[in-house]
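Re: [help] complex structure
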Amino acid sequence: MNSDLLESLTWNEKVSTLASYLLVGGMMACFLSLMGLLGQAIDPDWQGWYFGPLAFIISLESLYVYQRRRQLRFPEAEWFSFFTAEWGIIILGLRVLIYLKQGLSQLWIDLSRGVGGFLESFFSGEFIAALVGVILVWILTNWFADLMAPLRNDATLVILEGGADTSVERHAVRQQLANLVLLIGIFMALLTAGLRSESFTTWARLPLMRIGVFNVMFYFVLALLLLSQTQFALLRARWGLNRFRVSRRIGASWILYTLIFLMLVGLFSLALPTSYTFGLLSLLNYLLGLVLLAGGFVVWLLSIPIFYVSLLLSSLFGMTPLERIPPPRVITPPVEETTAQAMPIWLELARSIFFWGVLVSLLAFALVVFLRSRREDILRLGKIPLFRWLKDIILLFRQSVHSAGNQLNQLAAQGMALFRRSGRGSRDAPWTFVNVRRLTARAKVRFYYQAMLRRAGETGRARKSNQTPSEFAQLMDEHIRRETQTTPEHKGLVAVEQAGEALRQLTAVFIQARYSPQEVSDSDAASARGAWDVLRRLMQSWKRGDQ
Amino acid sequence: MGSHLFVFLIALVGVAALLREEFLFTLVYLLLGVYLLGRWWGTYSLKHVKVKRQFDRHIYLGERSRVTVDIVNQSILPAAWVQIQESIPVEISGSEPVRQVVSLPSRGKSQVEYWLEGRKRGYYPVGPMRLYSGDVLGIIDQESYEVPAEHVTVYPRIIPLNKVAIPPSSPMGSIRHTQPLFEDPSRAGGKRAYGPGDSLRRVDWKATAATGNLQVKLFEPAIALETAIFLNMYAPDYEDRQRYEATELGVIVAASLATWVIRKRQAAGFMTNGIDLLTGAPPSAVPVKGGQGHLMRILEVLARVNVGETDNFAGLIQHHKNSLSWGTTLAAVTGALNDDGFDALFLAQRAGLGVMLVLVGRNRELDRVEQRARRFGIACTRLERERDLDVWRK
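Output below.
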């Protein structure tokens, strides 16, 4: 098995290493060609188109000889001879390339100038600039090579039979590599953005240049591909240590899938809006400007004592004092931008909303995903007093909002319940807002009868569930007679007969309304109301809960 | 990587707003898209990977069986890498551990093969299989998914027997016997001249008419070999040092006896007080029946049974003896037998069952048990090791 395992690991490592070399070469080409474009923009006569291919070749050369170079020690003669040979070839190659670009006739002209003249023309300004670029690429490539070296030698992991776990080292290397890639990328992005910005170019006294976007974007795509290869290297280490049999195809498919994935994401990114702002970008710009102003103001304040000290020292020693830093200029608020094209305001607004919606959603989602993945770190932060207080405040705020929301919900629910109950009536409801006028005649009769029942219940004479309306009426009639006889002050108020008649009338109308399909007329409802009025006056005089 | 990227993105949005550069927004979209879609891809791809194992669920001891694992990506998105790790118990592992990494294209399929080898009877899990996957950029930690284990039964060793001294009791059956007591009227064995005392029902009238002399039919004796095998797996009945060997020998004896009986086209049943590895409780009794399928059922229970502290052997016999039909042979396979056990066997014998005692393992007490068995008139066989079964092979 080991031979199979070694064979597949070695194959995948070779594929991955080759891909990584090409990717680093490509990234360096993007980087140096950006420099070339910069030079070309500064001096339109100079042609820096060859910087990209040159960086690619130099980068590959550096990576190719890296293993050999690594075996040599600095003070040894072999190191010197190797280094001299390498750089001799690079310098000569570079000069030949420039001659090829300028035309071979330039070589004959330079040769005809003699040794002094030849050397002068050999080390021309263009050559020096290209050499600086080559040295920069060479250094960066070596940096990459140093970082990528531990990502190789998968086979030794298997042979060592559980030797040192290099996956930890590979993790660190991957992080360093990501930092380096990001650092170069930030530099390229800022440089390109600066050169494309009018305010920056005015400040730096450079011409406004619309260059470098392709370089930056392509650099990031290649950088992401390189990072995917480092992930592959990490996994290879783990698989090797655990004796996993790795498919030979995986190395190639890894590159293919990453490439397709990045292409799709790239196309998706290009399709998303980037420019519809409706003044919001200006506002953001202004806010960021204010932050920068505050920073500048702090620097200016700090410079005041330094200025006065330097003034004192210069007066003592008779030297010219330092020039005082001018205070930062106050930024003017953004002026509403006027769109060049005659576009309807609603369309402009819709596009702006779309742009900001997409951007803010993506950022918010990324933040949420990030915070979720760092849940433990956030929990750890909660132990620090400052964060704990912040957390308590947030919790308090959340609780307040939550309780306020709950109360509002309860109120709304109560309102809705009342709204739904209207027209139906409910025996269990303690009180209801019922507009009697809007009820039907049948409902009015039921309403007056139930009002009578409720009032009877309040005075301790509630209708039992097993009593029919007639039985209840009979009992109530007896009670009315008894009550009116024992309470002399009520004798003059309501006659017993009148009350009994009202009770019978109300009961009869209610039975008709409740249990029969016969139509209930308005006169029935009116008679029920009249009966209820009589009974109500009588029952108001009864003591509550009096049996 | 995530934290750095996130800080970078925030800074980038700030710079983009400050310098009003549109391409920086595109860069933000690219990096955010890679981050979010990378995460999504990493989690999504594994959810759509399905695994199916194909293998024989039952294997004999020493047999090798190939397991084919089909790993199918049902999604249109490829799974850049899928790490497969199958757990196989060492008792049935027939090849190197399954640790493989494959790449599954869109709707792609991969196949992994390995072997199982039945080295020890039992009921073993094949799996669980753990699948790991993730994105190509390392944005998320690896996602894992567990494919539940399936089980394989390794049958116990079966030793082919030829001549087992099982005491016959049931007169109706299909096996020839030497004792004329169990003559089977359906198995004609010849004719002879009538003699005094011969029953008139035995007279063969056709032969009498043909010969002119009274002829009687002769029948071949036959017995029914209904056998109920009782295996004692009650742990305290076995000495600690001998427990494993003795109980395993008991299982082999029970399996071989059941196989021999059923291959004779007779009926066999199996009862034990051990623990079924499948349920964690004593297995239910396998009733006395015939047929190859029934033998497989007995062997399956024997494959899974293990020693335990449940009902003792006497209790097991008493519990099941009433369900056995008259004349059934009760084959008690045990490593020890106490007074209660003897009582149970004796009562079974008196109830019309043929009793046969097979003592397995090495135990100083077994001599005494053997003597007592003889006194009770119980046929007893002692088997200390596997090769002692040769007495039934000759």
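Chain A has a mean pLDDT of 79.
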